[in-house]
Design brief:
Chain B: Keywords: ATP-binding, Nucleotide-binding, Transport. Chain B: It holds the Pfam family ABC_tran. Chain B: GO terms for molecular function: ATP binding; ATP hydrolysis activity. Chain B: This is ABC transporter. The complex is a heterodimer of chains A (257) and B (313). Chain A is mostly helical and 257 residues long. Chain A is 75% helix and 2% strand. Chain A is built from eleven helices and two strands; from the N terminus they run H-H-H-E-E-H-H-H-H-H-H-H-H. A two-stranded antiparallel ribbon of chain A has the order 1-2. In chain A, a hairpin with a 2-residue loop joins strand 1 and strand 2. By secondary structure, chain B is α/β, with parallel strands linked by helices. Chain B has two domains: 215 residues, P-loop containing nucleotide triphosphate hydrolases (Rossmann fold, 3-Layer(aba) Sandwich); 66 residues, Alpha-L RNA-binding motif (Alpha-Beta Plaits), CATH 3.30.70. In chain B, the strands form three sheets. Chain B has a six-stranded mixed sheet, with helices on both faces. Chain B has a four-stranded antiparallel sheet with strand order 2-1-4-5, covered by helices on one side. Chain B has a four-stranded antiparallel sheet with strand order 12-13-11-14, with no helix packed on it. The chains are: A mainly alpha (257), B alpha/beta (313). The interface between A and B is medium-sized, with 28 and 32 residues.
Chain lengths: 257, 313
């Protein structure tokens, strides 16, 4: 970003993306607050009180970090997937393609927008959780690192999805059939130590396990995974997704004829 | 000599094998007002797509003000302003957001972009609508918005792909005035259009493209001089039998209208003399169609016939 043109372009895309999700805040910021409040009430307060402790803390304390992470994943992904696909579909992506905006700038701009929405939603959900359980922090560095890396990764995932998508259906297939099952089986609601050893081993291949556990470690100091392993996994996935997005955009996959 | 646009041997084959451009050569001088005409599917939009980096070319070179599209793409992009055929802005954004963001993509600071937005939106009669969402605009306003958006980074070459399609006559004329003014201020303009009257009125030079190749690249004046025969429609006082005209080919349309094809060299005097001699009164007269339109159809047909005969030979 040494080139000032690229910096102005990046800032422009980022502002445009933030303006978009703030303009439609009823669709972007309110639903996660309502959904998570319901999770806190039903799973945390009503059912959680009968479950007892998990990972050495109350069930409510256990699921809060996982639910925040679930909101981060969903919002980062859907923000970029729907915004980039709409830009492609309505052809206003051409505004950027005809201008001297580098492919990396386009990626960073869209991903930056997705990360901004994910972080804002994370803050809202964390504030809501404060009504149900006192907030504790064991490692602020771990919280910040995992939340930013996770948001970036899923924003990149949304971008890749939007590049390949040919219809609006195509941007809901991955969230429904891949993202949701992986998240629900990603240790949000249970500790993987409860699983039989075979399924524990299988769970190691679910990347969301690393994110949820790394994030949970930052709050309550409890994790099924070594925190540094979680960060390493996130870094590797980010590098792979970023390279793939850059390569595809350079080739013009789904955006240039 | 540096040209505003210099294209040589440009080829584009789409996936599936369709060959849209077959070695197209084209030069446009700096400061020119150039018309690129051609029937639907001739390759105009593909050519514009390649110049503006929306379509990847298969081979050939494109230079804009001397900058090569292959090696100096950012310089090429900085020099071009594109007004596409279809509305491609975000319908949910305001006019101000659309034009200021576009400037941002070219590295123009927000402060400067807002100043320029005021200038161009005022010039195009859109300033009062600056805070409206784009979807609330009329068709003509949307077209002008796309022109304003293309000018915010002050390009030296403005490419307009059918800018007046679906625009009413009054508005079309005001857009012509605006384009003529910015051309005089030094912006080179390339225009594609189906309104040949528009090309004739605005453009100094003209290229006709058909089946992926330029079949004519000349001045508007030279092209119109090629037209040897013009067709006139004459409104007459009602007649009972067809008049006899020997100095021109004549067709009777109804009992008070005839069409005559007159060779440029022959002139109209003899036609009038012959009609007067037969006591036929001419009430009014007009050109049958736009002159350029006839020429355009002739050229495209001639080009196709010569290609076919070459293929059969």
């Amino acid at each position: 970003m040494r080139n000032p043109i690229y910096f102005t372009a990046l800032k422009t895309i980022w502002i445009k993306e933030c303006t978009r999700f703030l303009r439609i805040w009823v669709q972007t910021l309110v639903p996660p607050a309502i959904t998570m409040t319901l999770y806190f009430i039903i799973f945390g307060s009503l059912i959680g009180s009968r479950i007892g402790e998990m990972g050495g803390v109350s069930y409510m304390e256990f699921i809060v970090p996982g639910l925040i992470m679930m909101s981060v994943i969903t919002n980062a992904y859907s923000n970029v997937a729907s915004s980039f696909f709409s830009a492609k579909f309505q052809r206003n992506l051409e505004e950027m393609l005809v201008a001297p905006v580098s492919n990396i700038t386009i990626i960073l701009g869209y991903v930056g927008g997705g990360v901004a929405r994910a972080l804002l939603v994370a803050i809202i959900v964390t504030l809501v959780s404060g009504f149900f359980v006192p907030l504790q922090i064991q490692s602020i560095a771990m919280i910040i690192a995992t939340v930013i890396l996770t948001a970036t990764l899923f924003a990149l995932g949304g971008l890749l999805n939007a590049m390949f998508a040919k219809s609006f259906d195509d941007i809901s297939i991955i969230p429904t059939f891949v993202l949701t099952p992986l998240t629900y089986l990603g240790g949000v609601f249970y500790s993987i130590t409860l699983l039989p050893s075979f399924w524990q081993a299988v769970s190691q291949f679910n990347p969301i396990i690393y994110m949820v556990n790394g994030f949970r470690y930052g709050f309550i100091g409890v994790s099924d995974i070594q925190p540094m392993v979680a960060i390493a996994v996130l870094l590797v996935f980010n590098a792979v997704f970023f390279t793939l997005a850059w390569y595809l955009l350079k080739r013009g996959t789904g955006v240039r004829t | 000599m540096t040209y505003a646009l210099e294209i040589s041997e440009l080829r584009k084959t789409y996936r599936g094998g369709f060959e849209a451009l077959k070695g197209l050569d084209l030069t446009v001088k700096v400061g020119d007002f150039y018309a690129l005409l051609g029937p639907n599917g001739a390759g105009k939009s593909t050519t514009i797509g390649i110049i503006s980096s929306l379509v990847n070319k298969s081979s050939g070179t494109v230079k804009v003000f001397g900058y090569d599209l292959d090696t100096q793409i950012n310089e090429v992009k900085q020099h071009i302003g594109l007004v596409p055929q279809e509305f491609n802005f975000n319908q949910f954004e305001t006019l101000m957001q659309i034009v200021v963001n576009q400037a941002g993509y070219y590295g123009v600071s927000r402060t400067l972009a807002k100043e320029r937005a005021e200038k161009y939106l005022k010039q195009l009669g859109l300033w009062d609508k600056r805070n409206e969402r784009a979807r609330n605009l009329s068709g003509g306003m949307k077209r002008r918005l796309m022109i304003a958006r293309a000018l915010l980074h002050e390009p030296k070459l403005l490419i307009l792909d059918e800018p007046t399609a679906g625009v009413d006559i009054e508005l079309r004329r005001s857009m012509w005035e605006f384009l003529t003014r910015i051309n005089k201020e030094g912006v080179t303009i390339i225009l594609t259009t189906h309104y040949l009257e528009e090309a004739e009125m605005l453009c100094r030079n003209i290229g006709i493209i058909d089946k992926g190749q330029i079949i004519e690249n000349t001045t508007m004046k030279a092209l119109l001089n090629k037209l040897n025969v013009e067709t006139f429609v004459l409104d007459l006082e009602p007649i009972t039998k067809p008049p006899v005209i020997e100095s021109a080919t004549m067709r009777m349309i109804d009992d008070h209208t005839i069409e005559v094809d007159v060779a440029k060299s022959a002139g109209l005097n003899s036609v009038f003399s012959e009609l007067s001699a037969q006591n036929i009164k001419v009430l009014s007269m007009r050109n049958k169609a736009n002159r350029l339109e006839e020429l355009f159809v002739n050229l495209v047909e001639q080009g196709r016939e010569s290609k076919e005969s070459a293929a059969h030979a």
